[in-house]
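Predict the 3D structure for this chain.
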Amino acid sequence: MPPVARVPHLARSLRVQLTAAAAVVMAVALALASVLLVVRLHHSLLGSVDSTVRQRVAAVTELVRSQRLTDPLPTATDEEVVQVTDAAGRVIAGSRVATGDIRPQPLPTRPAGAVRAVSGTSIGGEADSYRLAAATVAGPAGPLHVVAAVPSDDVADSIHQLAILLALGLPAVLAVLVGMTWTLVGRALHPVEILRRQAAAISGHDLDRRVDIPRSSVELERLARTLNELLERADRALERQRAFVGDAAHELRTPLAALLTRLDVQERQDRTAVQATADADADLRPQVLRMSRLVDDLLTLARVDARPPRLVPVDFDDVVLAELAAARELAAGAAGRITLSAAVAAARVCGDAAMLGRVVRNLLDNAIRHAQGTVRVSLDVQVGNTDPSTGPRRIAVLGIADDGPGIAPADTDHIFERFTRLQEGRDRDTGGAGLGLAIVRDVVEAHGGRVTAEPCCVGARFVVRLPLDSSAAASG
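Done. Predicted structure below.
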C-alpha cells in the first residue's frame, strides 16, 4: 500500500515544518518584543532624567525670583551641574563639582526650555554624558539664565546591561519554546501516527477491518471516519469484484462444459456419419452464441467499470429508431408473433451513442424474449426535478413495455443485479446470463440517469430517464 507507506515521512515532515514555522514566528516575536522593550525602557529612563533636569531648572529659577540665590547652588548629587549666568555670560552662581571647585565656564543657555544631550567635556563634571535644560528669568539687574545638567550615564549603562541579558537569554528561551513546540506537535500528531499504523496493518485480504475512532478532537474523528468509509467502499468493491469473477467463471463453465461434451461425443461418432455431425454442429451453435454474448456482456461491464463514457451530444431518438429497426427483424424471426409499436419524439441527450444503443438493444431483447405478442416503445421529453440553480430540468423518458408475465414487486430491485434471473427465465436455451439489465443500469447511471421497472397492468415496463443536453434543453 504505497500511499500509506509514505505517511510516516509526511508526519515527520509535517512535525518539522510546524516546529520550524513556530520557531521562526517565536524568534521574530521575541526579537520585536526585545526591541520594543529596549526602546520603551530607554525612552522611559530618559524621560525620568529629563523630568529631573527640568525640576532642577525650576527650583533654581524660583530661587532667583525670590532673591534667595546662594553660591554654591544646592544639588541632589555631586554629579549634577547647575549655573546662573547674566546677560554678559558671566557665572553668577553655580554648583560645586566633586573637586569642590566652581566651574567658571558658562554652560550653553540655548535653546531655552528644551532638553538636549551634551557630552561631559563641555560640562566639566565626572559623568560622560548629560541631559541639559535652560531657562531665562528676570533678575534684579537684568535677565538671568538658569542652566542645569543631570548625568545620563546610568541610562546608557542600564540599556547596555539589558541588551546583554536579552542577547544571552532570548536564545535559551527560544530553545525552550521550540522544544515545547516539538513535544506538543508530536503529541498532537501521535493519534495520526496511530491511525497510520492501523491503516498500514490492513492488507488487501482483510479490508473488513476498521481503524479506531479517536475522541481527542473532532478533526481526527472525522479523519478516522473518512478512512473507515474509504475502507468500506474498497471492501464493497472488492467483494463485488470477487462475486463478479466467481459468477462469470460459473456462467462460462456451463457452455464450455457443454462444448467439450459435444466434442467428445462427436469424436466417438463415425467420421462418415454426416447427419450426426450436422446435428452436433446444430447443437453446438447456440452454446457458442450464448458464450459469445456472455463474453461481450462481460467486456461491456468491464469498460463501464473501468472508465466513464465519453459524453457528447447524441440524438437519442435516432439511436432508438436504429435499434427498433434491428429489433423488428428479431421480432419477425420469432415466428411472426411479436408486434412492435413505437411513438418516438425528438430528444437530444449528452452521452455515448454506442453505449446508449446497447441500453435500448438490451431492453428490446428482454421485452421480445418475454412478450406474448406486443412490445410498446415510447420516447418523449418531460420535466423532471427542479434544480435550485437552473430551475426545472428537462429529461428524456424512454419506456419499453411488453405483455409478458411481468415482474413481481419484490423482484423490481433485484433484476438489475448482475447474474440475476427470475425463475421463469432460467431456461439456458432462451434465457440470458443475467447481465443485460445490469449493463442497462450501469450505463444509464454512468450517463447521470436512472432506470426503473415500473408497475404495469399487463407484463413489464422499463423506464429510462436521461437528462437532456444542456444546449438542447436551453433552446427548447
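The two ends are 51 Å apart (CA to CA).
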